[in-house]
Structures are given as C-alpha cells and as structure tokens.
Amino acid sequence: MTRAERTHAIGLIAGNGDLPLAVAEKARDSGRFLAVAALEGEADPALAGSADEFAWLKLGQLKALAGFFQAAGARDLVMIGGVSRENILFNYDPDEDAAALMESLEDYHNDKILRAFCRWLEDRGFKVRAANELLPELLARPGLLTRTAPDEALLTDLKVAWRVAKELGRLDVGQCAVVSDRITLAIEAAEGTNATVKRGAELALRPVAVAKVVKPGQDLRMDIPVIGPETIAAMAATKKVGALAIDAIHTIIVKPEETIRLADEAGLAILAWTDEE
Prior knowledge:
Elements: E1 10-14, H1 19-29, E2 34-39, E3 53-57, H2 62-72, E4 76-80, H3 85-90, H4 96-103, H5 110-122, E5 127-129, H6 131-134, E6 143-144, H7 152-170, E7 176-180, E8 183-187, H8 193-202, E9 208-212, E10 226-227, H9 229-238, E11 241-247, E12 252-253, H10 256-266, E13 269-273
Parallel strand pairs: 1-2, 1-4, 2-3, 4-5, 9-11, 10-12, 11-13
Antiparallel strand pairs: 6-13, 7-8, 7-9
C-alpha cells in the first residue's frame, strides 16, 4: 500500500494494558492501515505484529511522534492505554516541543496535559479520535452486569463512592473512590485504580464499594475509564471488594466475558450506571 493510498490509515499511540492490542486488532480486521507508536516501558511488544508501521518512542518525544505518523500517512489518531507513574518519573525525555507544552500549563493534571497534547497534534493536521468509536461493542451497557448483586449496605456505599468519584473527577484528580460503611477510605490520585483499591481495602473491616467513573465534562478521546480481567483480579486479591460501579456507555470493558466471569467467581457485583441513576 502506497502512502497516497492510505486514506483510511489509523495512528495508534499505545500505552499499557490490553486495550491497545484490542484496538490494533480491530483496525487490522477492518483492513485499515495501522501505524503504532508504542511508548517505551509501557506498550505490549505484541503490538508490532498487528501494525503495518511500528516504532518505539519515549514519553515526551513529540516531534518524533508527529514525524512517524506523517511519514506513515496516518492522520486519524487514537490514544489508548495507561502510563505508569514510574515511566513519568524515570523515562520522561521531553523534546523542545514537549517542554514548551508543559511550561504553558498552570498544573499537571491529566486532563489539562492530554487536552494540550490533543491541541498540539491537531495544530499539525492530525485528528484525535475516541477509541470507543472503533470498539463500541466493548462499552458497558446500563444495568447489573454480573449474576452477583450488591446487598443494601453495599448499594448505599456504591452511591457514596459514585458521588465522591464524580467530585474527584470534577477536580481532575482521579476517577476512583473506595467506600465502606459510608466512609470514604481512599481516592485515586497518581497511583492508579488498582493501588487505590488496595489501599482502601486495607483500611476496611467490612466489604468495600468501588466507583470508577468518567470525569464530568471529560473529553472521551482521552483517558476513558477501562476495566478488565486485571482490574477484577486486583480487586478479588484484596478479599474485601464487594461491588464496583462504572459509567454506562462511557466505560470500556476489555475482554468482557472473562471480566464478568471472574467477577462472578469472586462474588463481586458490577453495575453500570448513568448520572441520572
């Protein structure tokens, strides 16, 4: 395929987790040309097998990133997958453009960084798209997703966790809250969902409720909430998590059948709510 023929090419900026590979396989199955820029220390090396063009890039190498996609003829870009705190601290290697972008920000909250990054890309002719446009079948449907249902105490705690997580998201700090006996035990900051849940569960005497939500007004092209088998395994390992509430329609479930099966085996209820609920 020549560069001129790549009219439907997709560029994937890949972080950690299973979702980048799912997006890559979806693009490959649709017959679209795929260029993958994989973040060093984060992305799965298996992505190289699904890509027509592939490159490893360090976090902060914006000019190299743009140059890679321009050379590949990929103008539609998808950002998916996490970036660990360790990578941000120890593998961040900013070029001049990245340094200038960060200097322009008043704080380094996720949404502000990602929105600024999207603007930087779009100023250079790229179009940043949401992963859920490619994978609508992985979006959580509203309702109880597991056979296991929460009891009244857990349901009350879920509602508290939901409100706290939404307020946390409004402040652009995190997306997750852990509650037991109507007491907030942990809220997410830079450590990520699994570490937040573990920290909260260690403080609990009774089963805990967890909410993982979309931030109010969130740009769904970036940092969309994701759960999957790893999420459930981490919650089950605490032996304290009784229920999880997620945003219906706006949360991606990686490997949904396996995720629900693992939750049922652990006796963990998963509910997908809308804000109206």
